[in-house]
Each structure stands twice: as structure tokens, then as C-alpha cells.
Amino acid sequence: MEDLEIQAAKADTLQVEFDRLRFSSEAALQQLRRRIQDLEVQIATVTNFPDVGPAPPPALARRLQAQVREVEAFTTERDAAHQGCQALEQSENALVEAATQLRRQVDSLQRRVTRLREERDSLQGELDTVVRERDQAVERQQIEVDRTLKARSDLHAHDQHLNSMRSSISRLEQQVGQWSSTSVATERRLAAAEQGAASTRRSRDLALHGQDDAVRGRDAVVTDYRLL
């Protein structure tokens, strides 16, 4: 991506340089065209010089020869200027073609940069989605870890409560065993007491029965005595 942006920047710089060269070339062409026009005017002026006869004066002959040499020099300069113009036009055409190709390359690079940026934005969106899902998964995992830790803590507390209940049950069982032993002894003592009480009641009943017999015997004796 950075390489493409650098190439695009270089292309823009080359475009600016091409515009500057084209402007300077056009200025040089205009200057050469004006120079050619001036030379053509001077050549026409010399060529149209009026005929002064078959034998011009020496001064005029020298002047004409000088003007002919000047015309030849102007002609040579004009031809050189024409060649320079043609070279400049060829250079300008080459620059135009190069600029066109460069512009096509720049447009292609810009399209590629745009496509890469779109792909980057798409990948960034996918990355954001993945990061968000990862964060949510981490959060859910942390919640599960917290739940697991709480469940372990609750289980540990429950185990401690069960151990405490087992200890209490063991103590109660011991107490029940002790109470059972005491109850058996008490029941035995109670049974013995009840047996003693029953024996006492039987003895009392026998005594009372004997007493009743004695009273009845006494009453019979008294009755008999009264009858006598």
C-alpha cells in the first residue's frame, strides 16, 4: 500500500514536471517561430532587392555579397531553427505520449489503491468483528470461570456443612446409644419395681383377706356368744 502511494506521488511529481517542460517547450517554439518569421522577412527583403544593372558598383557588390552571406546564414539558422522546432515537437509528442502512459499508470495505480483500501476496510471490519467476538468469548469464559469458582466455593461450603452435620449425627447417635443403654437399665429397674409392687400388693391382699376372715370369725363368735 505504501509503495503504491509512493509511486502515485512520483507520478504526480512527474506530471508537474511534464507540465513545466511543455510550457517551456511551447514558449521556445513560439520564440523560434517568431525568429523564423523574422528571417523569412529578411530573406524576402534581400531577395526582392531592385536590380541595379549588370555591373553594380563595388560598394553595392560588397553589400550584396554581405547580404547574400547574411541570407545564407539566416537560411542556415532558419533550417536549424526548423530542425529545432521539429525536435521540440517530437520531444513534446514523446512527452505527451509518456505523460499519457504515465497518467494511465497513475489511474491504474489509483484504482488499485482504491481497491486495496476497500479490501483493507473490509478486512478491518472483519478484524473488528473477530476481535469483538473474541472479547465476548473471553467475557463468557470469564463468567463461566467465575461461576465455576462460585460453584466450587458453594460445594466446599456444602461439604463443610455435610461434615458438620455428620459430626452432629455422630454425636446424636452416641447420645442415642447412651440413652438407649440408660433406657434399658431404667426399664429393667422399672420392671423389677413393678414386680416388687405386685408382690407387695399380693401380700397386702392376702393380709387384708386374712384380716377379713379374722373379723368374720370374731363376729361369728360374738354372735354366738350373744345367742347364749
UniProtKB/TrEMBL annotation:
The residue stretches assigned to a coiled coil in this entry are: 22-49, 85-140
What are the protein's UniProt keywords?
A: Coiled coil
- Per its UniProt entry, which superkingdom is the organism in? Eukaryota
Give the SUPFAM superfamilies listed for this entry. Tropomyosin
* Gene3D superfamilies the record matches: 6.10.250.3110
Record carries keyword Coiled coil: yes
What is the recorded name of this protein?
Uncharacterized protein
